[in-house]
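Extended Data, panel c. Modelled sequence:
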Amino acid sequence: MLTPAGLRAVPELSYLTAINVARYRAIMKFIYMEYQRLKYWLRPEEIYEGVQAWGVLEGYTQEQCLSDLESLKAWGNLASRHDGGRALSVEEYMRKKSQYLLTPYAIEIERMLEALEKVKGYGGSLETTYFDTITACIHEIRLSAMEFETGEALRNWEKLYEAFKTMHENAADFIASIHSIQAEEMMATEGFLALKDNLVNYLQHFVKGLQNGAYKIEGQLQRIGDGLRDAYLEKVLADELGKPRLEEGKSPDELRVELQQGWDNLKRWFIGDEQELSELTLLERATKEAIAKVVRSAVRLQERRRGGMSRRNDLESLGRKFAQLDSLEEAHKLAAYVFGLFPSRHLQGLDERGTERTDASTWDEMPNVRLIRTRSRKRSNRSSAEPMRNYAAKRESYREQLLQQLEEERAFVEQMRELGKVRISDMPLLKSKERMRLLQWIGRCTATASKAFITADGYRISLVIPGDEAEEDAILRSEDGNLMMRNYTIEVAGGEAAHG
């Protein structure tokens, strides 16, 4: 909770913007390094000698060092005490001599500055091991929250919240690094192609771990009611208040509010609320978007690399070799050597096969013609206007083809109606188109609950499926081969019979 005291000025930061900032930073850096070596109280002579040993301040005197130490003390960065241990006389003892100690604010400021010096980017990582730690802690809460021994609840909470906080910060930093300017520039270089596969695999592995582990945590949290949560947090609060403290700390009410906010943050991150999606969902979505961004960047690089290559000379040389051959058999052999070295390509076209036989060769089929637009970037001459294209002949041809197809279908329906109820084994020899139409009928009937459908002309096509006890299969005979299948019974009824 924000209080007026939290909005006060921070004089402890004054030495970072003062005129003699280099002198203050050198003194604070030396005292902080000695603090890390467990040497807390320092005399001015020790501080001055340590700063002078670095050789970064020219003309620096001991009197200036004493003045800087007093300024730091006035800002609240240092605390001092009288040093009388080395006095050999009363006069020397009464002379002002001090030892200096870092204040808690100054320690945290120096830690922050030390961390800032190591920042080279966003950093971060996507680790799934934190989910295992959080799952284990929450599972322990569900099973043993009412039976925790003294200190166990606080240990569980510190382990749980530290894993949650580290996981969230590392993931946020890593996703931010992918969208940084440095990452954008790196994704535009050729060297990114070597990194692409590892990066995509890393992101995909995190998404899988997120889906496997995080949603288990969500289910565990939903099973913890308010009563169990409050009892657990009260045990954590009791363990925290039971620690011996030499300084005045936070009040029990402040600690209780802080623990409640921490639990709400944990629950909101994994479950969300009525107004917003959970951070878990947003992280999964951001990770998938990062995967798509990496793939798009790699595709652009590959297209740019291929865009500067021309195979015209190679294709012309290959065409001349084909033209010099005397027989089609030799052309087949050359094609097998040349085109068999490359992966297959799928070209869109009209697949109008003349037969369904599996042993038919590709060379026996009619070619599929497909118009391909030029990829040249050269602008065409716009001086001459292109006339409007007329598709009347094409539409008329398609209309005649459609009418012929409907007439053939109508004739086949009449033929089947005259047969009445007929089994597959009793069917006459069919044409290839009639066989395809009959199989389509069977597919449409089996896809409905009534095993029947009505055509556009009002004919009812119904199908009777043989039972499991029927062991014999039937052979559907057609001009392009025989098909073994179940012995269905098909009935075609007229329009009047269909509609009553």
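Residues 192-222 form the longest helix (31 residues). This feature is highlighted in the accompanying rendering.
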